[in-house]
Amino acid sequence: MANLQSSISKIRIAFVSGGLVWAALLTYVVHSFSFGWYIALTDGVICTSLLGAACWLINNNLRYYQPGKGSYINLFFWCLALTAACTFGARWVLPYIVNSTVYANFLAQSITIRFFTNYLAIGWMALISMIWYSQQDQKENEKRKSEAEKLARDAELYNLRQQLQPHFLFNSLNSINALIGFKPDEARKMIHQLSDFLRGTLKKDDQQLVPLTEELAHLQLYLDIEKVRFGHRLQTEISCDDRCGEAKLPAMLLQPIVENAIKFGLYDTTESVTVSIRAEMDDNYLTLMVQNPYDPKTARPRKGTGFGLSGVQRRLYLLFARTDLVETYADDNIFTTIIKVPQI
Amino acid sequence: MKRALVIDDEPLARMVVLEYLQGFKDQIEVLQECNDGFEGLKAIQQYQPDLIFLDVQMPKINGFEMLELVEQAPSVIFTTAFDEYAIKAFETHAIDYLLKPFTKDRFNKAVEKFLSQAPAVQPAKHTEALLEAASQSPAQHERIVVKTGTKVKIIPVNDVEYLEADDDYVSVHTSEGSFLKNKTMGFFEQTLDPSQFVRVHRSYIIKIQNITRIDPYEKDAHIAILKSGAKIPVSKTGYAKLKQVLGI
């Protein structure tokens, strides 16, 4: 952006100095027709200012309006009209300032040549502006495109990483490692839970809608594994009335929310933690509420969780085109996340 | 006989370490298992162990933050599922690091390394260097962990009003009072977000959001008045820095 700013100021300087050179040349030419310096200078300044104004106009015009392929002819007429305005403007104004018949005659005779030089200058200006602005547009488009691509890539990467959940996976494997020694049966059970859970995450497709019972069953696997890891410190409460069992929601929607709840519940306090998940039907919405205790005083700035939550928000937006489906509340020591899933 | 502590919030993870340590029961005695950094801190002060097995991700304060609060730091072997790249940086300073799940062979190697170098190396020096390395990781700078008496206080960086040099310590001023931290001004100047915190004076770093007014004071110097009413001297170079950050 700073780059663009500096190049714009450079262009301004070039424009003004071009104008000065033009005025000097014109003054010199008029002077060489044996007019006095005063007359020549007046002619030079007035004509050049008018021409400059015309150039500025056409440039500004092109900044906001780029002619399409078929309408270059319009630009031609635009230039013609501007040339006429500035040439005849000078023709009209100059005699008022310079009181000389000889000069008035000279002005009338030179009108054609003035018209054509002005036309060339304005046309040239139009051409340059057109090229410059279309180049700017192109740059802008490319930047936007690459940003959008980067965003898509980031999201994809995040998804991949999220699916793998290395921290969770390695810690679970470590727990299994511990269990193998003295509780081989439990180790075996945990291996099965872990593989069922991972298989579940792999086969799920982002677009797919699944019944709540299925989502909760998958979540239960995850919670069971976490309970083995954290022992008595982690408790969970899941309540879901009969009516919402069949309600549909996007696959793996609850997972990141519950993961956050556990993470922040467990790492915000040293005591035991209860994470509760409640599902209700509300008109035509499936309402899901996840609660976890947290410590408002020492809670780490919730940077890490942002993506999880905003990922859920984004998915709901893409599916239902609404941004009001996720709400969070933090009161006293309980953090609550509420998600509403419209039932179609 | 060396004395050790096992600090990890997952009981099964501690169990693995204890089980593997059976092979060294003539050389290493485990004094206590600790559930979190607070317990770890207490136990370290109580027992002054030679070695700790330390997990990184734990409730309330993480392993690095706990180490920061220890005065006489013992030798450290990290046991963590923390990703390898992050922990590599500390490799040279810790005795060793074990990535969960680790094998018995790998574990033995780490412990043998400790046993072979234990008498020669001063653990405190090692651990200081380790913390220095840990503080380079950006995740550490969202909060400052301090000790007040026997209690540990976690100050989110957002709650800091200003920092003041105090002999070998830095006094961290917040709305709830001020706390001493055994770090240098240079450390905070480097690690705090420079768009929020400016070192306006040899002995002061202020959070620019808290400034209500800057008045001239004597020649070349200024004085910044904070929301809390505190008056902070601003040196000539400090004023220049401040102007740059504020864009005036």
What does this structure look like?
The complex is a heterodimer of chains A (344) and B (248). Chain A has 344 residues and is an alpha+beta fold. Helices cover 69% and strands 14% of the residues of chain A. Chain A contains ten helices and seven strands. Chain A has helices at residues 2-32, 37-64, 72-97, 101-109, 111-164, 166-182, 184-203, 212-230, 254-268, 303-320, and strands spanning 209-211, 234-240, 248-250, 273-282, 285-293, 326-331, 334-342. In chain A, the strands form two sheets. Chain A has a five-stranded mixed sheet. Chain A has a two-stranded antiparallel sheet with strand order 1-3. Mean pLDDT of chain A is 84; it is low at 301-305. Chain B is of the alpha/beta class. Chain B is 31% helix and 33% strand. Chain B has helices spanning 11-21, 37-47, 63-69, 84-88, 104-117, 123-134, 185-191, 236-246, and strands spanning 2-7, 28-34, 51-54, 75-80, 96-99, 143-148, 151-156, 160-166, 169-174, 177-181, 197-201, 204-207, 211-217, 221-226, 231-234. A five-stranded parallel sheet of chain B has the order 2-1-3-4-5, with helices on both faces. The longest helix of chain B is centred in the middle third of the chain and has 14 residues, at 104-117. The relative contact order of chain B is 0.09. The chains are: A alpha+beta (344), B alpha/beta (248). At the A-B interface, helix 6, helix 8 and helix 9 of A face helix 1 of B.
Structure summary:
Chain A has 344 residues and is of the alpha+beta class. Chain A has helices at 2-32, 37-64, 72-97, 101-109, 111-164, 166-182, 184-203, 212-230, 254-268, 303-320; strands spanning 209-211, 234-240, 248-250, 273-282, 285-293, 326-331, 334-342. In chain A, the strands form 2 sheets. Chain A has a 5-stranded mixed β-sheet. A two-stranded antiparallel sheet of chain A has the order 1-3.
**Sheet with most strands: strand arrangement of chain B:** 2-1-3-4-5
- The helix/strand order of chain B is EHEHEHEHEHHEEEEEHEEEEEH
The share of residues in extended strands of chain B comes to: 25-35%
How many β-strand runs of chain B?
A: 15
Mean pLDDT of chain B: 85
The percentage of residues in β strands of chain A lies in 5-15%
Our Rg estimate of chain B from Cα atoms comes to 21 Å
Unreliable stretches of chain B (pLDDT < 50, length at least 5) are none
Cα separation of the termini of chain B: 64 Å
| Content-based structural category of chain A | alpha+beta
Q: Give the helix level of chain A as a range of percent.
A: 55-70%
Shape of chain B: elongated
Low-confidence region ranges of chain A: 301-305
Largest sheet descriptor of chain B = 5 strands, parallel
Subunit organisation of the chains: heterodimer
How far from one another are the termini of chain A? 46 Å
Alpha plus pi helix count of chain A? 10
Radius of gyration of chain A: 37 Å
